[in-house]
What does this fold into?
Amino acid sequence: MATVTHTSVRPATHSPVHRRRARRRPWGYTAIGALILAVMLFPVYWMVNVSLQPANTAVSTPWFPTHLNFHGYATALSQQGPNLLTSLVVALGSVVFSLIIASPAAYALAHVNARWVGPVLFGILISQMVPGIVVANALYSAYNDLGLLNSIPGLIMADSTAGIPFAILILRAFMGNIPSSVIEAARVDGAGRVRAFVSIVLPMSRNALITAGLFTFLFTWSDFLFALTLTTTEDVRPVTLGLYQYLGSHVSDWNAVMATATLASVPALVLLLVAQRYIATGVTGGAVK
It folds into this structure.
């Protein structure tokens, strides 16, 4: 009887050619990612490069700042320093105001079983779709009657119209994962509703609070529409509006303009670097039930 032998065939996936391609592929992806990142960050680099050059050299700016010149930063701080401070106060105020309103609202929407929860959430989503210019025009008429034009509280409340809905959605998704048994245990120990919310829910929602606060800060810090519509004097002027008007009157002094833009980018950059490990947890905290 003839004996049939079986020859083992090595799968193609284990061939030397395939292994070499598998080793090369991550490097190719890394190179493509680095190229895309370089293209996206080049405007930022050019902004910093021009800010370190002598005045009136924007057209013939070298690729590298060989002779560092900080005159633009001195000019920016002296002329735009109050505007930077105004933006910082308005942004921090919007964060505090938005979280004070959004935190209890998100907790109620997450742990109250009622028919009105669905319509309220739908209304919050719809409010995110309203064009900013519509809100700004409506606020201008109301602020004119209430005397809130050219005021920091007025800008804080106006910028919070974008921060509060976003914070409610982020916080509700996170607070919905907090077990009701934890809150009930606090109630059994004698804590009231407010005490349980402040002592139990808020500390457990730290990552979501940081995430909502950070995005609210970014919304407010980069706001231009409300600043342009609700401020008509130089007494209260955020840095975005100051930079816009500064550009029109100092278009020949580009190092000061770019220095102002660089200084305006520092607070957002610092906050992103400090809070980046909280952002991923806060955003994905409500993804899995």
Summary: The CA atoms of residues 197 and 203 lie 9 Å apart. The radius of gyration is 27 Å. Residues 4-10, 282-289 have pLDDT under 50 and may be disordered. The chain has eleven helices and no strands.
